[in-house]
Amino acid sequence: MSKDNFHTLLSRYRNGTCSTHEKQLVEQWFALLDADMPPMSKPENEALEEKLWSAIQSRQQQQVIRPHWVKWSWAAAAIILLGFALWGVLPKSAKQPIALWDGLKTQAASSENHVIQTNTTTANLELKLPDGSRLELTPGSQIEYPKFFAKDHRTVKLKGKAFFDITRMVQRPFLVYSGEVITKVLGTSFWVDDGPDGQSIEVAVVTGKVSVSQLTKTVQPGSEKIKNGVILTANQRARFLPESHSFEMTIVENPLIVKPEGARSSAMTSSFLFEDAPMTEVIDRLEQAYGIEIILENEALEKCLFTAALPDQTLFTKLDLLCAAVNARYEVRGTRVLISGRGCL
């Protein structure tokens, strides 16, 4: 690379017009730097560049007669010197550790800029991520994340099972990579479990909305190519089936009340006190409380009246009592509950 080309590359990088390969090259150079090193002044930077290029020209004239190990040591030194020169001309936002994943990640970037945390205890381990998000790592599970998230996305890798409570950032989606599945959110809480074999991955949403998709072999963080996927809301879960490359959606094992922002617990409890309430009213309250669609298959059920206090029971216990009172039964089909029967006697 000539000196003019060197300056041109830096200019394109600052302006965001360089190619993907050029961007990777510059960022890999930058990954070799010490993140605590102070920036240089413009005169200091120009002097260092001149010294660097003079040394390169001198070495190029001698490399024919030098042994291979000398050339390799000079190449390493040149890259490091070039990195110091880059420090003074890169934009301020670039002077943070860069999350370089998979094929783009150098060994130095992996050891200096990433945290790998494994829970070797017998209890859940609570961790706080760089953006303020919180997670609980179950025993035997492992999480990997950068010390500093990128400005346009937040990416972690999970092996095992963890609960995430994500700080909402509209311009910086949060991505969880687990096996063949990527989970994408803006700000919500959910579980991710890659199963004992790392294949039957399951995502369960507690609050908010989550996008779950299958990864392609060419996928890279921040620029995913989605093969197929589903959207989950509170109290829904999806299991990835590797044999069919598809997702199976259903309701979580124990649905929780989706408490509206600002709502009081006492108000939510009182909404489950029924006295001669028509079935349509009962169903409407349950749907609003849990965010789950409940369908009456028989119009005759709509005329039934229901009287009971159901403040503390789980959703499925409430449904058991409701169906017993109106001579009906229910079943879960996908992410919906269907109630059928001849109706009240």
Q: Any overview of this molecule?
A:
By secondary structure, this protein is of the alpha+beta class. It folds into three domains: 92 residues, no CATH class; 150 residues, Jelly Rolls; 76 residues, Phage tail protein beta-alpha-beta fold, CATH 3.55.50.30. 30% of the residues lie in helices and 28% in strands. It has eight helices and 19 strands. A seven-stranded mixed sheet has the order 1-4-5-7-8-11-12. It has a seven-stranded antiparallel sheet with strand order 2-3-6-9-10-13-14, with no helix packed on it. Helix 3 packs antiparallel against helix 4. The longest helix has 22 residues. About 19% of the residues have low confidence.
Q: Give the terminus-to-terminus CA distance.
A: 88 Å
| DSSP helical segment count | 8
Instruction: Work out the strand percent.
Output: 25-35%
Which structural category fits the helices and strands? alpha+beta
Q: Rg from C-alpha positions?
A: 28 Å
User: From N to C, what is the helix and strand string?
Assistant: HHHHHEEEEEEEEEEEEEEHEHEEHEE
> How many domains is the backbone divided into?
3
How would a textbook summarize the main sheet? 7 strands, mixed
Topology of helices and strands:
Layout: H1 3-15, H2 20-31, H3 42-62, H4 68-89, H5 107-113, E1 114-118, E2 125-128, E3 134-137, E4 142-146, E5 154-159, E6 161-165, E7 174-178, E8 181-185, E9 189-193, E10 202-207, E11 209-214, E12 229-233, E13 236-241, E14 246-251, H6 265-270, E15 273-278, H7 279-290, E16 293-296, E17 305-309, H8 315-325, E18 329-333, E19 336-340
Parallel strand pairs: 5-7, 16-19
Antiparallel strand pairs: 1-4, 2-3, 3-6, 4-5, 6-9, 7-8, 8-11, 9-10, 10-13, 11-12, 13-14, 15-17, 18-19
Keywords: Membrane, Transmembrane, Transmembrane helix
Protein name: FecR family protein
Pfam families: FecR, FecR_C
